[in-house]
Amino acid sequence: MEKFRFLTSGESHGKCLNAIIEGIPAGFRIKTTVINEELARRQVGYGRGGRMQIEQDTVEIKSGVRFGKTTGAPICIEIKNKDYENWQDVMNTEKQEYTAEETLRKIEEKSFTTVRPGHADYAGSIKYHFSDLRDVLERSSARKTAIEVAVGSIAKQILREFGIMGFSHVIQIGNVKLDFYPKTYTLIKEKAEKSDVRCADDLTADRMRNAIDEASEAGDTLGGKFEVIFGNLPIGLGSYVHWDKTLDGRIAQAVMSIPAVKAVEIGAGVDAAYLKGSQMHDEIFIKNKTVYRNTNNAGGIEGGMTNGETLVVKGTMKAIPTMRKALATIDIKEMKPASAHFERSDTCAVPACSVVAEARIAIILADALLSKLGGDSLEEIKGRMND
After folding, report:
1. DSSP sequence for 259-291
2. Domain total in the chain
3. Which of 122, 149, 315, 329 has its Cβ near the most Cβ atoms within 10 Å?
């Protein structure tokens, strides 16, 4: 069986975002409505910017699915950028031999040469030899995570066939931390899904909104921390035999590569530094031939493999670099000091980032599951799962 993998294309203000996915066996039911629901989750959240008022993302499945079920062929999906109608002249893919003066004016207005600290602008301009930083911004933008969430939704629908479910919630925005956790994961999920900051405690959520409002009024931005949880995973996803097969390593790379994420933790994470071995490691017990543990500091992974406990992953997102409060920088055209360029932006996107991380982790888990079980159809895979 092929590896579950995907490639995406598209720019922030281009015509569309695309993905081609391969390695999905035949017979899985894929619902467009479910993908669109996931896309909507990514777009909402307290502190989001004006772009979310323009785009109402919906996906079109263009191939690889027939009558709602996968055929085993590559799947192509697409999200159209509604804002493209305002950017057609600026983002035209064809070479302009005789450009009208009005078009030149539009292109010039959207071009910029002042680097935004914290973005890909400076390194990207040097690497690809660009003089217009628009060429860096368009693909380095977090806009591309929309199509990744769509791919992640397909992965989640695959996992659901085997009873594997996951969710995300926000545990910190700025210096406001979630100290009170509901008693069960079910309650955390229910509370988080109803919150515009994806926080499971109402009082903490209010304090988070206040922090976002204060940052917005000051022309500043805020980062934070989120947690992604997946349950009912079989033992043995991933491997210890090679460094690039460890599941925690693959998950860390998937979450770390989300724009603005600066740290990834699994289980106890950075708190493991403070724990003695006798405190850190999850003791194993058995009762009536059932193996269980009372703690989960490992976060569901030991030796690079799932160990039967709940997977717990935390990610830390830095404050968004694009802000009205301009930072000191340089103009790469004039090579002189300047104030950073401001592009329409969010004040806080931690809730959205948690949804993206949820999707990225689902993709890794779906690949690990399909790789372990093998098979070219859902029926074959389920047969192997039950063996």
Report:
1. TTEEEEEETTGGGGGG--HHHHS---EEETTEE
2. 1
3. 315
